[in-house]
Sequence to fold (1800 residues):
Amino acid sequence: MYTGPERTYGAHLQLIRYQEDAYNEQQVDDVTQLAKLLAEPGVRWLNVVGVHDTKLLEDIGRALELHPLTVEDLASLGQRPKVEEYDSYLFMVMRMLTRHGQPLPTDTPAPATTDGTPAAAAVSALAAGPLHSEQFSLVLQDNLLITFQELETDPFGPLRERLRTGRGRLRKMGADYLAYTLIDLVIDQYFEVLEAYGDDLESLEEEILRGPQRDSLQRVTDLRRDLLVVRRAVWPLRDVMGSLQRKDLEYFSPDVSNYLRDAHDHAVQVMDAVETQREQLTSLHDIYLTLLSVRMNDVMKVLTVISTIFIPLTFLAGIYGMNFENMPEYHWRWAYPLLWVIMLSLAGGMIVSFRRRGWL
Amino acid sequence: MYTGPERTYGAHLQLIRYQEDAYNEQQVDDVTQLAKLLAEPGVRWLNVVGVHDTKLLEDIGRALELHPLTVEDLASLGQRPKVEEYDSYLFMVMRMLTRHGQPLPTDTPAPATTDGTPAAAAVSALAAGPLHSEQFSLVLQDNLLITFQELETDPFGPLRERLRTGRGRLRKMGADYLAYTLIDLVIDQYFEVLEAYGDDLESLEEEILRGPQRDSLQRVTDLRRDLLVVRRAVWPLRDVMGSLQRKDLEYFSPDVSNYLRDAHDHAVQVMDAVETQREQLTSLHDIYLTLLSVRMNDVMKVLTVISTIFIPLTFLAGIYGMNFENMPEYHWRWAYPLLWVIMLSLAGGMIVSFRRRGWL
Amino acid sequence: MYTGPERTYGAHLQLIRYQEDAYNEQQVDDVTQLAKLLAEPGVRWLNVVGVHDTKLLEDIGRALELHPLTVEDLASLGQRPKVEEYDSYLFMVMRMLTRHGQPLPTDTPAPATTDGTPAAAAVSALAAGPLHSEQFSLVLQDNLLITFQELETDPFGPLRERLRTGRGRLRKMGADYLAYTLIDLVIDQYFEVLEAYGDDLESLEEEILRGPQRDSLQRVTDLRRDLLVVRRAVWPLRDVMGSLQRKDLEYFSPDVSNYLRDAHDHAVQVMDAVETQREQLTSLHDIYLTLLSVRMNDVMKVLTVISTIFIPLTFLAGIYGMNFENMPEYHWRWAYPLLWVIMLSLAGGMIVSFRRRGWL
Amino acid sequence: MYTGPERTYGAHLQLIRYQEDAYNEQQVDDVTQLAKLLAEPGVRWLNVVGVHDTKLLEDIGRALELHPLTVEDLASLGQRPKVEEYDSYLFMVMRMLTRHGQPLPTDTPAPATTDGTPAAAAVSALAAGPLHSEQFSLVLQDNLLITFQELETDPFGPLRERLRTGRGRLRKMGADYLAYTLIDLVIDQYFEVLEAYGDDLESLEEEILRGPQRDSLQRVTDLRRDLLVVRRAVWPLRDVMGSLQRKDLEYFSPDVSNYLRDAHDHAVQVMDAVETQREQLTSLHDIYLTLLSVRMNDVMKVLTVISTIFIPLTFLAGIYGMNFENMPEYHWRWAYPLLWVIMLSLAGGMIVSFRRRGWL
Amino acid sequence: MYTGPERTYGAHLQLIRYQEDAYNEQQVDDVTQLAKLLAEPGVRWLNVVGVHDTKLLEDIGRALELHPLTVEDLASLGQRPKVEEYDSYLFMVMRMLTRHGQPLPTDTPAPATTDGTPAAAAVSALAAGPLHSEQFSLVLQDNLLITFQELETDPFGPLRERLRTGRGRLRKMGADYLAYTLIDLVIDQYFEVLEAYGDDLESLEEEILRGPQRDSLQRVTDLRRDLLVVRRAVWPLRDVMGSLQRKDLEYFSPDVSNYLRDAHDHAVQVMDAVETQREQLTSLHDIYLTLLSVRMNDVMKVLTVISTIFIPLTFLAGIYGMNFENMPEYHWRWAYPLLWVIMLSLAGGMIVSFRRRGWL
Fold:
């Protein structure tokens, strides 16, 4: 049922409960306790790390009364972004994209929670590195949000900090606003990823216009494939965000709906950027091909100029290397200098003609 | 009326009847008995293998009161996936795709029913082999499902096993859930087919980037044609699955509707994957063409470098092979060594100039 | 007003009247009698052959109270397929396509009616021949169907036979079912045309992959233009068939509506096939271009290998053809054999280098 | 405010009033009289020639109570075809296209009205000449039609004649039918223009397939640009015609609505033809490029065959032009004839090898 | 939060209040006074220059009760054009495009207001210069319009002048008409930008058809990228203008709605023009590539003609430069002249053959 790569670390659950004036954070080891823990008042956020543990997913599904299809979707990792309304909850799948194996602000190196690498370092690391696509699922109920991620790292460190310290409006709002904030942070990561690709594109274009390298084509191909992955993550998300707003979903309060509209705008902007970059990539390939033709033209011109000048001259020299007994020119006094004059004028005439055609 | 390839084996009918606590499986030899057999209580699944026997189809159509157009559609094999609502039943056509002549878990080598090849072997065989597309039709009535397939092999072996043993929820649900399960199994096969094509694509890309072979182009063309076939099977299926959900069809209970939504998602995912692979194929063709240009450029550079260096030198050698009486250079003492010096400097200068142009 | 090619034969009208137990077929020479003839009971089918006789069309229009725009449309031959509802009748235009000047089962060589060539011969003739597109119009009223065709030949021979003999359900149904049957026969012809193009495409592809001929490009171009014609005939037909079903047209009984849905499916299938063939044609052109590049590469490699090996050797031979007095090598004993050794090693080295580059 | 080219002639107004049994035609010199003139009974058609006189347009706008935006649109000449409903009138803009500077049946050389050149001459002139696009605007009120054109020439000569003589149904109908007739005449011109382009396309294709000329590419480019202009004129017109029908516009009587549907069909047909021609043009460019490659291939083959045959032979001749003292072959008796034999066999072998590769 | 380039100048606010008979214009230095200033009667237009001062934006947001998301959107500069309805105001974002660093009629060199450069100079400057894209936001309330721009320059100088002098209908209308006028002026700028690009395109096409330069490809690429930017600014604007009309927004009076329809038309026209230019650019790239092939063909023909004529002749000369003792031709009397005759006929034959192939 689990369709991703093999994982060796254990899955674990983190439960955060908060109200405007209270905050509590704990590790959940015994899933059977879950129902009791979630029964307490306030907003509850249960974060499940490691969807490869299908046994755990099934236990959670049973404890929280999730539909079998939801549990199945959580573990099968190739999901397209989508939103589905079940009887008692809203289920949403989206993809987290980063440009390196480990997503950026790594606040959860262990199940514990502290801020790891500083943001600056993470951003500078982003510009390089291969694309990493991870599945991120949300289950939203009244005042309860359950999130599922593959790896322990995520971009939610600053958010957790704000929850802890009570800064901002987060603690004053419900689970729906928390869900919006998480979705928005994931979409914000797309912008970072696309900016990194934008930089790659620009440097690649400069490189190609300066003179294509042997591996330029390979890099164009790799970029194209990566952008296809990004596009498959973003394209359906646009509809998902749209339907989150439109549907008369009681899961989102009208106040949060304004924010969802904003997140929807962001998703559309990302889509726009992806399409623009894809077009640029196509035109880059065209430029590459065109430059190959330009270069071929240059090479051929040199070959043609040299051959066209010297082949007739060589022929003339060949003529007067012949050994016939009866060649009167051999005995003329000025024959040799005259031949040089003829040859030089011939070469000169050709050079003039090439100049006129713009080949020199 | 039958439009497929000629078949030599006889068509046969298998009838499975089940309830939560009962299971019965039998061969139907006499179609006239059909109405009586189907009148018994419980869910009934009639599987017809071999639609080339149009006489049999007509008999079944008469026994079950199918519309003439339905019977016609069953036998004309080029059908596009579609769903049609008739007065007393729902008719659906879709395509079963596999990557070898015989579809995978071959549980029906004879009209009898046992599991044949183990799943692992089937999957490994998949990666190779030509694409095989077969028509699969369903007629769904209240508690009665009739399916029609061309060949005896199908991917439903494990499902039959589950029905027999009573494992899972299958026996607790109606014919609509059985129909969903069959549809979902067929769609799951698409994923396997596309994964095999994905592997082909990847190895083809590697091969082309390493250095295109003579038959690379042929293989690109073959892949493109196959993906066109897959696309024609999947594209309309998306709409079919959508209309199965949307239409207020009394044939599907609300509970099963959730599952249909899931199958619809799968169909959309398959479509996505097909389109992505088609794009990759197009870009592969572009890369092939570009690499041809790159190679041509290399070839031309070598030709130009060699010609440009030696043609002028050969001309000089030709000059001093002439037989004029009055050629003073012939009598100079250092003429010959001097000529070598001139030639070597000429060649050296050209090599430097080629280096600067990046041709060497 | 008539926009087609000039026709020399006279237009004529054939009137068929039938009920479940009666059949009557006659030639109509006097249009003024038409109203009286059509007043009789039963289903009436008036077939007008030859729309170049605009005078006749106007007379018919007056006799049957057709709108002036309908009469105009009948005679202007470039019509796009369409359906229009007038106050007292339904007007429909579609195109009959065949792959030779005369459409296939030629049952009407004269206004009389007998079956001509057997079907098998007609089909074999189809695979060749240029595309022929003819306008076919229908006017459907309650129990009255009027059809207009340009030429006397049409694919309706077997249908007329069935009407005459009373086989099948035709005589039991109304004019709407007759209209459906005619439309369906016309659409069936599309399949035959497309199959013939499919054969052409396949043989063209084989030819190109085996080694493109001089006229391959011309044939690709011709095929593309033909498919454009087919597409313009089929694309709007899809919408026409759709609107025939959807509109609450009282002209079609609910029973016939099922059949129209089937014909609609066929139109969509034809459209699919056209688009697939167009894609194959595009990819065929790409393959042709790519193969040209492949061949150019081969040609250039041969040229480069030969030139690169022999040009330096010829230079060396040129050197020792010079006539300087003071060339010590001339007097060495082993100079000549040594030069051969040098030349052969040079050539050998180059061949090894070409092997390594994969040029040999 | 006026955005077109400068015009030197004066603008003028022609007013035609007609009823079933009356016809009156006059020149309007004083715009202030306009309101009084238009108050008379019957259908009135006011034709304004020369929209460069913005002062006049403003006067007309004030006299007829047109919205300022309408007046602005009349004078700014780059308008896209559109229809707009104002409080008391319907405003429509479309484009008149011709293939020469002066549009065809020039019935208004002066503000007066007589038929100029016969239609036949006009049509023959059409096939040549550059594309000319002119803005044509209509304001339709109850029984009043005001039209605005840039130049005095237009395709409405025959229509005016019919109005004068009272032939046809024109005089029996209202201003809405007059508007339809004008629109239809303008659309009919599109067909003529496209036919001329079709002829151009065909002759260009023949020329290219016979052997592309130096200016073929220029002509392809020019055709493409012209078709873009036509497309921009026609594409929005389709929607305009559609909305004329659909909107419950009281400006068109139900009877005229049938005619509008017909004009709509024509617009769609024009659009179809434009798209088809654009596709043909694209494929023509592809063919041009492909033929260039074919020719390059031919050129390269000749070069390669000649070089590959003679370069090794020249090398051999060079060998035996050397002056080493110790070259035993020089003294063999049959050396010279033997060399000829070797050379001829070498050349023969190569020719055979080229034949086998299909290069000769 | 602010995402644009760093700005060094201070942000400032200009408040204009007017009624039909009154006009007042002042600088706002203390944002806390804003609420009081805006409470006065008449239409009020508050123009904020410099959105890099996020502190100021927050103060304004607090004073005018803007939603936090609106304030965020104001400062994040990559916004896509959009319109959003909040509880008490309408928020709209669009982009101002110009073809030089400073937008044209620079009426606000300092926060003060006078007209700078005359329009003619500005327009002539337009044709050159890089594309400059600036974010322009509007907040529309009842009788209050707040606009936000990045730089002090804008195209609103003539409008301000009209407001001051009371010419036109501006002072008689509400804030909604003012908003329309600003939007229309911004869209009018697009036309100017596109005209400049049209000129660039035309000169580039001429240049390429005359003979492509080394930097032509670079210029095509730059143009393509610029048009992508324009397209991203205009494409969503079309929908924005559409929804301004359609939505039953109480912010626009029915009278102004007519004007919005006009502005919508303009946006569609701009979109059309952008798409047309993009197509022309694509076809320009194709032409460039084709011309490269044409030139290559020319180069190859010269090379082939020269090589093919002289290589065989050189071979003949080489033959008779050999030193075999026994070469009878050497002693023939007319051998040398005869060889010349042979050579000249050979060359002549080849020239004739090349003429026939059209290579000369």
User: Anything to note?
Assistant: The first helix of chain E runs from residue 34 to 38.
